[in-house]
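User:
Can I borrow your eye for a moment on a structure tokenisation matter? Would you put together a sequence-and-structure record for a protein of your own picking? Please set it down just below, with no commentary around it:
AI:
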Amino acid sequence: DRVLFMVDGTTTDAVDPAEIWPEFIARLPAKLPITVVRNKADITGETLGMSEVNGHALIRLSARTGEGVDVLRNHLKQSMGFDTNMEGGFLARRRHLQALEQAAEHLQQGKAQLLGAWAGELLAEELRLAQQNLSEITGEFTSDDLLGRIFSSFCIGK
């Protein structure tokens, strides 16, 4: 998680988010990274680019002209741990790709269990494992919800 704190550079010279909007910053979880984005650098004459102020990344750009937007894009990619796969231009975290591959494998195994042995309970376990892999990406874990839906559709063991 990260906060993008967009500031209209023509309305304030402040660059510290706690100075610009202290009530908002006070409600944020401790140590949540904040990137301050000062827009309208084409009007204010500020130097485009990135620096650091009080432990926060500060990026000056112009949304109207697009200047500096690449700096913001690269900062976000880097800060979130993304890698570039040059073949398809697809961006993903390595661990996300691994989790997707593992989830796909569990789905294939579950399908094989269901089609081969009509083993619904083994399918349910493979679905649970696939969901667990996907929860590594989303940050949510709702295996009880998933299994509840499965068991509401058919009854295992009768």
